[in-house]
Amino acid sequence: MAIRVLLLAAALLALSSSHGAIASDPSLLQDFCVADKMSQVRVNGLPCKAAKDVVVEDFFFSGLHMPGNTTNKQGSAVTAVNVAQIGGLNTLGVSLVRIDYATNGLNPPHTHPRSTEILTVLEGSLEVGFVTSNPDNKHFTKVLNKGDVFVFPKGLVHYQFNRGTTHAIAIAALSSQNPGVITMANAVFGAKPSISDDVIAKAFQVEKNTVDWIQAQF
Ligand SMILES: *[C@@H]1O[C@H](CO)[C@@H](O)[C@H](O)[C@H]1NC(C)=O
């Protein structure tokens, strides 16, 4: 009997955790919940504005035909279209980005804590990759050409690099209205206030002055 109860508990746990793994943003309880950006209410996501005040523009954005400005240290630019740009995306669990890459442009290693990403190359070619979690840290990498599609699983560190001879353009869809971005280098070396150099030196197994030098770049 005790074993049966235990097995049942284990099965329920497996069910609930596999359900958790499938979920992206929580599912809808209504047709839409257009973000009321003026509201002082704080909830997980954004509060809904009154349905009578919802207009077609709440579901609209124009501008992804425009190239991003890649004149920066990384040589890349991300134009995001998430709930910040389209209030109607609130609670819908999807968003988009356009990414432009100069030649040698890099979208540096980063993660989206709340989102899987599916990316397609519209112009040029990209070397892309992601790394699995500990302890394996297996690196999956591939060169993508125009029309190719690649997936970066939720939460994993990933990047895109343009080794091609022309600029590159990609569009990516993300499984959250607000995927979030953690850029590894910025989070570790550019934290404000800084993470102590002895902490980073020990983590990266390098001298403290090497860490100080890298921190000074941010
Ligand atoms: C692109 O960004 C650079 C660096 O910030 C700036 O000097 C330049 O004017 C920008 N170009 C356009 C077209 O906005």
From TrEMBL:
GO terms for molecular function: manganese ion binding; oxalate oxidase activity. It comes from the Eukaryota. Residues 62-212 form the Cupin type-1 domain. It comes from Brachypodium distachyon. SUPFAM superfamilies: RmlC-like cupins. PROSITE patterns: GERMIN (PS00725). It is found in: Secreted, Cell wall; Secreted, Extracellular space, Apoplast. Keywords: Apoplast, Cell wall, Disulfide bond, Manganese, Metal-binding, Oxidoreductase, Secreted, Signal. Disulfide bonds join C33-C48. One of its GO terms (cellular component) is apoplast. Pfam families: Cupin_1. The keyword Membrane does not apply. PANTHER family: GERMIN-LIKE PROTEIN SUBFAMILY 3 MEMBER 3. Belongs to the germin family. This is Germin-like protein. Residues 1-23 form the signal peptide. Mn(2+) binds at H110, H112, E117, H158. Oxalate binds at N107, H112, E117. It catalyses: oxalate + O2 + 2 H(+) = H2O2 + 2 CO2.
